[in-house]
Amino acid sequence: MSAEPHGYSAGKQALLARLKRVEGQVRGLQRMVENDTYCIDVLTQISAATKALQAVAVGLLEDHLRHCVVQAAKEGNAEAKIKEATTAIARLVK
Predict the structure, then answer these.
(1) Which pLDDT tens digit goes with each residue over 42-66?
(2) What is the rounded CA–CA span in Å between residue 7 and residue 25?
(3) How far apart are the first and last CA of the chain?
(4) Among 4-8, 18-22, 82-86, where is mean pLDDT lowest?
(5) For the purposes of burial, counting CB atoms within 10 Å of the CB of 26, is it exposed (0-12), middle (13-18) or buried (19 or more)?
(6) Which residues contact residue 85 at a Cβ distance below 8 angstroms, ignoring those fewer than 6 apart?
(7) Is pTM, for the whole model, over 0.90?
(8) Are 91 and 54 in contact (CB under 8 A)?
(9) Nearest alpha carbon to residue 66 among 26, 11, 19, 13
């Protein structure tokens, strides 16, 4: 792990708040299953939680590009960071 601040450091509290909301959604899903909620309603909520996590991922990726990749480019060694970002994007679109 690097001692340097990450691209998301400035918005860390907002990021944590979004993740806590997703955590709440997942707990809600557990309750829905425990309460034998209609399957389509559960699937709808799973879709909402998935989209919320994807939004967090896209925000983190944007922060990575704006901070880490830009910094690496300024230092003349952006290739590794670009490859890293490309790999992350590939995981997100699978």
Answers:
(1) 999 999 999 999 999 999 999 999 9
(2) 26
(3) 26
(4) 4-8
(5) middle
(6) 61, 64, 65, 69
(7) no
(8) no
(9) 11
